[in-house]
Structure formats: structure tokens, C-alpha cells
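pls read this protein.

:::
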Amino acid sequence: MNERNVSPDSWSYGILIDGLAKAGKLNDARDLFQKLLHSGVTPSTVAYTSLIHGLCMANSFDDARELFADMNRRGCPPSPVTYNVIIDASCKRGMLEEACDLIKKMIEDGHVPDVVTYNTVMDGLCKSGRVEEALLLFNEMERLGCTPNRRSHNTIILGLCQQSKIDQACQVFHEMEARDIPPDSWSYGILIDGLAKAGKLNEAYKLFRRMLDSGITPSAVTYNVVIHGMCLAYTLDEALELFKSMRSKGCRPSRFTFNILIDAHCKRGKMDEAFRLLKRMTDDGHVPDVVTYSTLISGLCSIARVDDARHLLEDMVKRQCKPTVVTQNTLIHGLCKAGRIKEAREVLDAMVSSGQSPDVVTYNTLVHGHCRAGQTERARELLSDMVARGLAPNVVTYTALVSGLCKANRLPEACGVFAQMKSSGCAPNLFTYTALILGFCSAGQVDGGLKLFGEMVCAGISPDHVVYGTLAAELCKSGRSARALEILREGRESLRSEAWGDEVYRFAVDGLLDAGKMEMALGFVRDMVRGGQLPAPERCASLVAGLCKSGQGGEARAVLEEIMDLAYGGKARGKAAKFVEEMVGKGYEIEDGVLKPLLSTLK
């Protein structure tokens, strides 16, 4: 053009700058733009937009913003395309406030933002969790004459599902259909996933069937979601039928599909079927990953096939699939549960040798395993080793050790660990207090147990029926039945009715019966009946038989009448009830073994 004495105009420059920018020759595009400015020709909107887009693509966003501002200074109005480019770049960098301000400026400049503009900003807002603001923009679109498209709806549906607002997501889905915008595979997939994660598995499956009926092929991800949901809410057979139908619908099962089904079989103890799926998985060209192996190891351990689990771990390593700490912990737990503590320690040693760091769960499992095996000294060593490795023991660690020491009749050491626990800033929970209270009571030190009882209540921890019952039984043994009754009444008032029953009174009543203290036992049973609870037949049988043997047939009959009035409200009590009343009334001594089956019929 220059050779022919034809000066390039703004349009010519714009075309060339656009071509250079699209070809990735950004420096050449910038040089040409500078030449354009020095020539005295005002750059066109196309030239500005092309260079701004190129700068954004090259991550030179600050330069792009400066060029956008220069546009306005030079009196070159940005076009909707220019706005879309700079808005998109702002959203990708998380500068959502700026993106929203640009939409306002765009409207002020007389431009109506198009669906691309809105989709870009709504997507950015949803990804940052600002779904309510995205919804406002979504509703604003139509008011300004911009009809939302499928992508607009999908963006909002996804954002709502990610915030567990499933009902709203369903509403937007139905609005899309009402606008004659047919949902695509992505639309269905998002909502099916959201419904499944919200536990609405039936609705998810219905939507999936509707998707198939509409002739839309689900993705492997959607199949995985539905198969996983079916494994939870339906039978495995139904999940397997769906799995088999995938190929006929043109969808190849992924490794995740196989992992889901293997996990479902393992959780049901169907290990042979799980291994058949593993073979099918490899035949299909998928390489088992750490999830596959960990799932199978967990399944084997759950049915006590620990040797097979160990062999599988070895096979996993041979196949260059590195076990995670979770994998190792699963095997350690299985070995400990089988009482094979030495082998569990070998797994720990192998972990450390391979450069893998054990975590708190590893140590907790081993501490609990040693305590169950009565090896409390080894458990204490593990606690020290854990601290030396920079791992903070948690409430599970301390509770396992306190419980183990108490069961080994090493109460002073258990108290020492309890003190260490509190000084380290780890707050004891219900199970910690219960273990130590049981330890004190087993050692005949009920006052120590009562002191801990008061401490746990002050700490805002509600004792359970085991704590109340154990303390009451120990108080009875030491002749403090009045205090025992107070404890039981306190427990009955503080615990929910379903957590309180005959089992709690058993601790106290059995202790009194064993000691031959019939009057006290009778008082406890009467208190129980008047509190609206029916003793178990064996409790009644022991008490009535004991009263009969001690010549207190009248008392025995009165107790039976109270119990039967509670159970039947004065209505006909049946032959068994009348028979028992008659025998007691005539002064017969009835053995516990005879009474128990008779009283069972009254229940």
C-alpha cells in the first residue's frame, strides 16, 4: 500500500493487528498498534479489541485494562465484543466486582449486554459461591430483553446444586423446559448429581430414566452417579443391570464405574464378585488404581481374610501402585482386629522404611490393638513415639489408652494419662470419662468415680446410662443405696426416655440381690415401676423368687400387681399372670428358673 502511495487507514490496521494477535505474534501486533498511533490515524474499535484480546490471552491483563481505558480517552467507544473480552478476563482472574461494574458501564454506554456477557459473569459468580448474585443477573437478563440460553440455565443449576439448593435448581430446570430450551446431557447430569448428593436418590433415578427416554446419552460421569446411588438405595442386581446397559447406549464404563461397583460388593462382603469385577476391569483395559486396591483390602479385612489382604498389598506394590496411608491403616486395623499385633507393627515398620509417614489414625489403631491384647506398656511406648514424630495424640488416642490401662487394673497410670491429656489441651469426651469411672468402680473406689462424674457434668458432658448404672451398682455394694437411688433418679430425668430403661436398674438391682438385700432391691424395682418403666422378666423373676424364699410372699404379690397394672392397665392379664399370682398368694416358693418363662409371657 505504501509503495503505491496509498496510506493504510484505521480499518486496514485493524485487520492486520487482529491477524497478528490471533497468530500469537503479540509483539508485532503491539508494534503495529504503536505505529498506528504515531501515524495520526485514530485506531478503530476492531484494532483496540483485537489487541486487548491478545493481551488477555497472553496474561498481560494490566496492559489490556490500560488499553481499554485509553480507548475511552481517545473517544473510541468500546463495542459489546470489547466489553465481553475484558469482562471475561476479569472473571477468570476472580475480579468479579470489576466485571459487574463493567456490565453497568456497558448499559450506561447504551449497549445491551448479550447472553455471552451474562453467562461469563454468572459463571464467575457461581464458581466463587455467589449464587444469589448470579440469580439476580439471571433474572435481570429477561428484563433487559436478553433471553437466557441453555448455558445460562446450566450455569445457575450447577451453582445451586453446589450449594445444596436442590429445589431451586429443579425450578430453574423446569423454567428452561418451559422456555422451549431442551435440556442437554450436561443439564441432566448436573441435576442428577445434585439430587443424588442431596440423598434424593429416587428423584435422581427418575430423572435419569427420563433422560434416556428423551434419547439423550448420559456421560460416564452421570452413569457413575446413578450406579453409585443405586448401590446405596436399590439392590446390587439393579446397579449391575444398569452397568451392563452402558455399552448398548454407547457409553464405555470408566475405572470409576468399576471402583463404585467393587466398593458396593466389598461393603456387602461379596468378595468373590468383587474380584470378578476386578478381572473384568483389567480385561476392559483399565489399570486398577490405589482406590481399587484399598477398597479390596478393606473388604477382605472386614471378613477376616487378612492374609489375602496382605498378599493383595504386596501385589499392589509389585504393580507400581503405591499404597496410601489410608491403605496401610486399613490393613493395620484388620490385623489388630484379628489379634495379630506383631504383624500390624511390621506393616508400620515397612511404612516408615519406605519413607511413608504414619498418621494419627495409624497410631490410634495400634494403641487400641495393643490395649485389647493387654499390652498396655507397648501402647504407652506408641504414645511417646507418636509425640516424638510431631503428631498430636487426639481424644481417640488418649481414650483407648485410658480404657486399656483401667481394664489392666493399672488405675494410677490411667489417671496419669488422663492428666497428660488435659494438660496437652485435649478435652476428654464421654467415652474417656466413662472408661475412667468404670476403672474407679472396678477398683472399689466409687468416690473417685463420683468425683469424675461431677467433673464431666461441669464440663457440659451428659453421662449416659452406663455411667449412671455403674455408679449406682457400686454405691449399692458399699451400702449407700440412698445415694444410688438419687443417681438413678437423676439419670432418668436427664436422659431421654429411649436411652433409659431396665438395663440401667439392672446394675443396682442385681448387685443388691447378690448381696441378699431384698428390701433395697424391692425399693429400686418399685421406683422403676412408678417411674413408668417395666422391668425385664428376669429382673422380676429374681426379685419375686428371692422374696418368696425369704418368706415375703405378700410383698412379692404386691410387686407383681404393680408391674402388671403398669403393663396392662388393669385389663385381663391372661392365664400366666393369674397362675403366678395364685402361686405367690398361696405362699409357694417359686424358683427363678420357673418364674422367668412365665413372666416373659406377660410382656
The longest helix spans residues 553-568. The chain has a mean pLDDT of 84. Residues 462-533 form one domain. The chain has 34 helices and no strands.
